[in-house]
Structures
1.
Amino acid sequence: MSDAAILSAPARRRGASGEAITAWALGLPAVLAYLVLLLLPTLAAILLAFTDYELGAPAFAWIGLGNFTELLGDRGFAQALRNTIFYVAVVTPGSILGALAIALLIEAGTRGRTLFRAVFFLPVVSLTVAMASAWQYLLHPSIGPLNAVLRQVGIAGPAWLSSSDTVMWSLAAIGIWENLGFNLVLFLAGLTAIPRELYAAAEVDGAPSAWERFRLVTWPMLGPTTLFVLTITMIRSVRVFDTVKVLTQGGPNKASEVLLHAMYLEGFTYFRLGYSAAITLVFLAIVLALMWLQTRVLDKRVHYG
Amino acid sequence: MTESVTGIVVENATRNFAGQQVLKGVSLAVAAGEFVALVGPSGCGKSTLMRLIAGIDRPDSGRILINGRDVTTLRPAARDVAMVFQSYALYPHLTVAENIAVPLAMRRMSAAQRLPLLGRFWPGSQARRRGIREEVGSAALALGLGSLLDRRPAQLSGGQRQRVALARAIVRHPAAFLMDEPLSNLDAALRVHTRREIVEIHRRAGAATLYVTHDQAEALTMADRVAVMQAGQILQVASPRAIYADPDDLRVATFIGSPRINTLPAEIDGHGLARVAGFPTGVRLCGAERVTGAATLALRPEDLFLADGGIPATAEGLEFLGESLLLHARHVGTGTALVLRLPPELVPDLPPGSRVTLGFDPGRALLFDAQGRRLRDTAVVPEPSLV
């Protein structure tokens, strides 16, 4: 035993640098992927945002903050930003509160947990583009089942996706439906992790109603889950694109234009890559701000260390 | 009749889980001011019984009374009980003071007054909050938590968390006090120390206390009476001394006491004489209990001694414990393992395999029938008729 220890001591010293090389070698694929797929494109986008580069153009010029000053005056962009904020403001509370309510109902029930979980999770695993076609049919003003039902009760349903009054609400409703299942599964996991004894203690301590037990135990214990769900839902809804692309293309008359769709239009329809990159940076700033909010501000209030 | 009894009364409670009867008609009474320990191996139903009394679970049949009031169907909040959980079940987002205040706030303040921010401005809220703060302060002081009131549970040690759980239970002065293995998560040294504290708290609070544990040392040292439970039944309820020295049932005798009581297969002849492998034991069954045939003779390790004549056995090993010494031996006639607790200075050097003969005072031997029921009506046969 001790002989072996003496013999291996110099070997270990020699191994120190070898160990570092091995570590770098093992980390290399991930480092490369990070550089090539994330860091370099981000840097490229940042650089592009300060140019007037157009796809296929032989040259480009540095125009400084030109793209950003143009953004400030661009009414289409302002509309896209407003619509995105509206979408986030409706989808985030809608899909979080809805998911929490359904998760509580499923958790309280005795049967069918797996079934309900699967049913609500289905939109998450299905292809949004394909599902969007189903929504197009459901919301169709003349042949859609929704308006058919409304007609039965004597209401003339609006043209959900082609009227500027209802289009954002319709998209938001689809967004809630899309995000609900994901949030639901997270909440169900969070609920299972709450110790049963805390509920027993709340009952013995005299919590008079289910609502009081929710306030005393469930809500605080779900804090970390809720924070995660909140951040993820906000980022997911800032990123809204495919339903808009498939269902409305930002119309009618830019009434459903959103950030990423505006970026897509500028970059890949009008080939103004520099301007498109500027929109991307605005998007990036919003997402980073949301993440900062999570880690710096809210995180301290939900972990009771 | 039981209606006039104060404290906790359980009458014939049964509880089934998935077709399995976990409680088989349990009856138990804990008088006001009494400390009863409910002890039994894991899975014997003791925690289930406690949950029935707390109201977290309901019995399938039977009744539960607290201070003479039938609470069988009442919710926990309406029962006037407090409970200390094995995991302490503290609210992690609340400070120590807020944790202790929960039972008072839930009872004395309206839902509107309890609201996080607006509640302060609700009429009457300030006075009640002040009253609660004072009572929380005195409960915390009683448990030495005065300097920790603003901490969160995660910042406390196991022993401190346990005190917070105790303070939360006593702050309301409940009629019944339930404790579910409160010491099992503490380290050994702290456990012994906290035992005395819990007894002291109980004495000051004066509530009927039911203490569930699987640790017989806790049960024997802390309780006024010990209830031994096994397989969904309470086998015996008696003082710690009686449980140890005068058990009703062979299962009680073997569960209580460490090392385990020695049990020797015996038979009782037509004259009521008990023999072990043909060897007369000096114990005779008399009176009404006319039992013959197979029986069990049980002897505590400290009731056996090395003698010149007696039960033949083979020594197998010695364990030195300081104040005493354990001799492991095997009975020659039946192959039963035996343990003797002996004063260390009286034990000669006994290499494994050496022959010994063991004596005992027949007056201290316990006799059980084939079903494990205690046969109490025994007498010591005078020496001459032994042979």
2.
Amino acid sequence: MNTVWLAIVVLVAMGFAYQFGTQASRRAAVSSATKLHSLPGHYGMLVALWLGIPALAVILLFALFGDTVVRSLVMGALPPDILALPQAELLTVMQRIQALASGFGVLGEPAAYELSAAERLRTLQTTRDLALVAGVAAAAAAGLVFALRRISPSLRARNEVEAVVKILLIGCSTVAILTTVGIVMSLVGETLRFFSYVSPVDFFFGTVWNPRFVTVGSGSADGYGLLPLLWGTVLIAAIAMLVSLPVGLMIAIYMAEYAPPKLRAVAKPLIEILAGVPTIVYGFFALTIAGPALSGAGALVGLDIRATSALTAGVVMGIMIIPFISSLSDDIITQVPRTMRDGSLGLGATRSETIKRVVLPAALPGIVGAFLLAVSRAIGETMIVVLAAGNAPVLQPNPFESVSTVTVTIVKQLTGDIDFASPQSLVAFALGLTLFVLTLGLNVLALYIVRKYREQYE
Amino acid sequence: MSAQAEPKQPPSSPVETGTAMTDLTKPVVAADGAGAPSAQPHGANRVEPKVTTTDVKVFYGSSEALHGIQTEIPANQVTALIGPSGCGKSTFLRCLNRMNDTIEGARVTGKILMDGEDIYDKSLDVVLLRARVGMVFQKPNPFPKSIFENIAYGPRIHGLAKSKGELADIVERSLKRAGLWDEVKDRLKEPGTGLSGGQQQRLCIARAIAVSPEVILMDEPCSALDPIATARIEELIDELRRNYTIVIVTHSMQQAARVSQKTCFFHLGDLVEEGDTDQIFTNPRDKRTQDYITGRFG
């Protein structure tokens, strides 16, 4: 909390520094009777940055290393017999000391060395906080003075501010990239641990999914077959695409080619609302309405359809994906140049011939790209399947029966009372990595196709 | 360019133009001795009109883009429509095969007769009309298909070929007429978009020829092409004149002078002056025509 307040103070100070810098630059311009290189605001911004960046850097340093330094100082002062204790017990001692220092209290009578260490910890923490404030103030002041002294009409404040902004932008993109890398690394690490229990061959080619609750290290590799889950995933995604592709494409064709502008302005957002419905809502829609309805409809024609089946999950997921396909395809169809349509209409083709023979073929690569993006969406979808697919990880071809998917199994393996070191939960990482590679591959393929399509007209 | 031209136009332009037109055409008609309103100032090479328009007005929403155009397009000749940008020449061209129908909010009034038949009549199938009146656009717009498929597109949708061999004949004949056959005969399967700009435009002309139209409309067909490709297209237009009636919109006055027999000068939605190309370019009667062709505006 302390740090947060300090950061807020620094930000306010930056506001004042901006004013100082602006005024100082104006004065400098007047006194030297020359034109400023940049706008006064740029000088103000530069001064504010010179104050803010060192101060925030000091805060960051303390936040990262302050606690570690204090701890090691306290630990260094502990009696040697305590320091000789095993790691786990030493950790307990440190926790007791911290509890004492914060006034929280500990179980049992605290030992003398514990009390003295707690006292030491408290003083050190106070010193650290004071040092933090002093450090921030010093850094801010130094930056402010330095920046104000640099101000002169020839200083290229605009270029410097823009350089800082550029670094900020790079920093933000780096965060996104590093996050992806971090996720992949953690997935890979845990997956490798899983493969130390279960051989990759058994995992990727096993046809039975039935992980038993075995203890760690017993070497049991039974029932970790990926295939039933992958089959369920593919089956549901295929049903979803069978529903969403024709409907979505026809919506797109109508919206892009036939709909009058007024209707389009109303209908397009309405369709896109479908994309805004939370998937859990689709899930219980599937469970309570779509499933029983499909089951009833099946009974009418003599088909035995379970209420929670691959069909239910697939159909509802297809409905969820419709706006995804229609919206992307609509954009792609409208991107087909008007001259292409004119050429066809000018030859005496009807509107529908033009769409079938010229517009759609021209838009096809883009539509395939949209399709692949939608498939990767369907494969990664979880909530609908959790509720509506019936969760039966069995390798069977009937879409009217219950199935389970990779995503559902991850949820199942990672919820409840679990041991994170056992293969039962580690398998979730292997599944997650498989899913990641699968959707990544589809996305890359889709982007490649979409890019190729763009080259055609530009 | 129209922004430059507009201030020079007095606010009472439609009225003035109206009088200018009658002033211009009446003496010619009288001199020609024919007396009928269909008479053309062509003197010796007078021909049957292919298309006759009467009081054609075009509205985009509530604004009027063409103010009552009255003219005739002679058969088997090249008629050039010239004028500054935004003067309505392309709009007029697009009336002739009803391409304006595809523009949202566009409305056409008046009469356009082709071989004596009203093309805006409700009983007329616009699809068949467009097969009779082919169009070539400003920018070459081959379909993203093979060269063969580009030409075969029209004959296919109109069912002109009964067999594969017949279709191949049509493709070959059209490409030959468009002067493209020798350049592409070995690569008919390659995409039409891979040709050069001039070749693409000749491909589009061949595509239009393939459905055996009677009239070919060309909307600035050379504006995206280099001088050599332009020269080839102009030669081609001159050859095509034997079999087709051609209407061409162009910004290049030299082009109009080179390829056309009749020229119509449009200005701010009015047909200011029309007549033999030679006469328009050597002896224009209207001040605005003279200013335009001498490069004073536009």
